[in-house]
Amino acid sequence: MKRLDRYIIFKFLGTFFFSIVLIMAIAIVFDLTEKMDDFYEAQLTWQEVIMGYYIYFVPYYMNMFSSLFIFISVIFFTSKLAANSEIIAILAAGVSFRRLMLPYFLSALLLFIMSFLMAGYIIPPASGKLLSFEDKYVSKFKSENVRNVQMELEPGLVLYIESFQKRSNSGVRTSLERFEGKSLRSRITAQAIRYDSLYYWHFDQYEKRDFDGLHENIERGARLDTVLQIQPYELFITAEEAQQMTNPELREHINKQRERGTGNVQAFETEWHKRLASPLAAFIMTLLGVTLSCRKSKGGMGKNLGIGLTLSAGYILFSTVSTTFAVSGSMTPFMAVWLPNFIFLAIGIFLYIQAPK
Fold first, then answer.
1. Pairing relationship of beta strands 200-212 and 215-227 according to DSSP bridges
2. Positive or negative, the Cα torsion across 113, 118, 120, 121?
3. Distance CA 149, CA 159 (A)
4. pLDDT at 16 (0 to 100)
5. Deepest of 75, 232, 244, 248, by most Cβ within 10 A of its Cβ?
6. CA dist list (Å): 22 to 27, 28, 57, 343, 344
């Protein structure tokens, strides 16, 4: 590694961490001002607020906006290098523009690895504690009741529950249907369903129908015990909980939900693709930042920062809108998450071709 490489890497990472720490300090002040009344009403000490909330708040939002700060950092210090004619001197010394990009991408690789590990393994547990704290002390959003649950527990076995309560582990008006191919072989309907333990469930006031061609056998009773491969907590997994799962947990949940045929798997697939697409945006933002700011401009650093902020805001807006399309089913999760990266990568390649060599 040359002295020039170390110089650019130090400038890149130093500017990035300084800017993100500064912005996070401002964000904490605004967030604390907004939630101060809630903390006071809950009679929380400063230690409880810091260790129970803000210690998880900081890494969550740092990782969320890391691509934006990478872009701003690259534009900021590269514009300064260009304004001081350092870029001109580097190119005049025989260093190619492609070689100049190497320390930038080495820094982006380091930030990519950090962001990927944080998003997949560190932030999910922290996010769960952050949301639990908000649900307990700020605003309650976790539901104790779920309605109209339908899922395929195993191939050919479909469960439907009209309403299920978390506190009592019981539901009302349920049915369990078994199919062979497209033919219905049996159907159990019950006024109530209760969870016991270790996948044991009880149907209360049930009616069981077995179908054999044109023949039908009907059985009625007060209670029927059965084993179902599902536990009550699985009925309450919402799209918000996708952020609380590590990569292996998220992958396992997606596969299980696909097998069961549930309808809210798009949000989890979107989160899965974001775990890779967002860290990879570090390379795209670096490419855009360098190619935009390497030219010495009459407008100075302010012009480059203005263009950079406009592009980064467009990237964030585009990502948010396309993610909404994925959740609503208008686009596949893959296309919704990766489309902003593909478009801004094309912009970056175009600017790289136009950049002074």
1. antiparallel
2. positive
3. 8
4. 92
5. 75
6. 9, 10, 15, 30, 27
What's the pLDDT score for residue 264? 64
Q: Which residues contact 146 (CB under 8 A, 6 or more apart)?
A: 161, 163, 164, 166, 235, 236
Q: Who contacts 263 (Cβ-Cβ below 8 Å, separation ≥6)?
A: none
Distance CA(237)–CA(240), nearest Å, equals 8
| Residue (of 220, 254, 223) closest to 237 by Cα position | 254
C-alpha separations of 308 from 8, 10, 287 in Å:
19, 21, 12
What is the per-residue pLDDT for 175? 93
Amino acid symbol at 244: Q
Look up residue 27 and give its two tokens: 């964000």
Strands in the chain per DSSP E:
145-154, 157-165, 170-180, 183-195, 200-212, 215-227
What is d(CA 112, CA 280) in angstroms, rounded to the nearest whole number? 6
Residues 6+ apart with CB under 8 A from 105: 283, 286
DSSP 8-class letter at 331: S
- Radius of gyration, alpha carbons of the chain: 27
Q: Which two tokens stand for residue 174?
A: 């349920």
* pTM of the predicted model as reported, rounded to 2 decimal places: 0.78
Centroid of chain to Cα 338: 13
**Cross-sheet strand order for the sheet of 157-165:** 145-154, 157-165, 170-180, 183-195, 200-212, 215-227
Q: In the chain, which residues have pLDDT < 70? A: 1, 140-142, 260-264, 297-302, 327-329, 356-357
Q: How far is CA 22 from the centre of its chain?
A: 24
User: What is the structure's pLDDT at 261?
Assistant: 63
pLDDT number for residue 328: 67
